[in-house]
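Ticket #4471: structure export looks truncated?
Reporter: QA, pipeline team
Priority: medium

Steps to reproduce: submit the single chain below to the structure queue and open the exported record.
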Amino acid sequence: MTTVDLSLPAEIVQEMLNDMPIGILISDIDDNIQWGNKAFQDFTGSNIDLLKGKNKPKFEQSHFHSLDDQENVFHVDKEKPARWLKRHEINVPGPNKTVFKISTYTDITEQKDCCDQLQNQLDELSTIDHVSGLLNQRAMLQNLEPLVSRSRRYQNPLSVIAMDVMNLDVVKDQYGQDAVDYCVKELSFLLKDQLRWADLVCRSGENQFIFILPETDKPSSVHLAKKLNDRIQELTIHYKGHEPFSLDVSLGVAAWEKGNDSILLLRNAKQSLEVAKSRGAGSVQDC
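Actual output as written to the record:
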């Protein structure tokens, strides 16, 4: 078999790497940046001459935003338009037993945008809130209408409780969105435990929950709302070593009345909720 010598002068190899359409960054074994190509500079808006000798992980931390579930996918928002990059790393032996780290960065912005569009379409079709695991707004409306029709036909009692978690915005300001999601999950566990299997527990917004209670009249719903308020006040949130805190809620109750449709029933519950919120955390109001 004939062999072909493919060894190339270092200058030619460097020129080829410099013209590659993917970003390339070379660092030493201690993660100190040694070289980067044109594409890397274009992707990140950086000057490689100013980066030489800098720590690569620190550079990435200051310039990139990694996804929680994909540590090698980064969002670069210092460039306009913003880019999504996917990183791949390999170790390459160098002269005198040295080792270099080669990091490649592929621009996946178009693929990411396409995936985001598909995810948005799936979210629109979904009936489950992805954070709480509860029914979402779309599912709530789908399930409420048949129950209202049944009450209209048979005069069966039906009630709705609207609940607002009044201090979630404060939690977000202090600890971030992850803390909000954690609180929502903890609260959802409590709600599922406290309500009956026939009741519909829904998350209708960032801070708001709706409970649809078939075969339940207003006095029973008010009693349940007060019970939920007591249980939530007893719930202590322990988040990542921070000082424990509790959640403040207000609840509004409305019962179906002759002539009500699903929209009016929800509106009445939310109007009761607004009155309860005006009275302060821990209030329960019925219309």
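Status: closed, not a bug. The export was complete when the record was re-opened. Leaving a note from the reviewer for reference: The chain has two domains: 10-115, 126-286.
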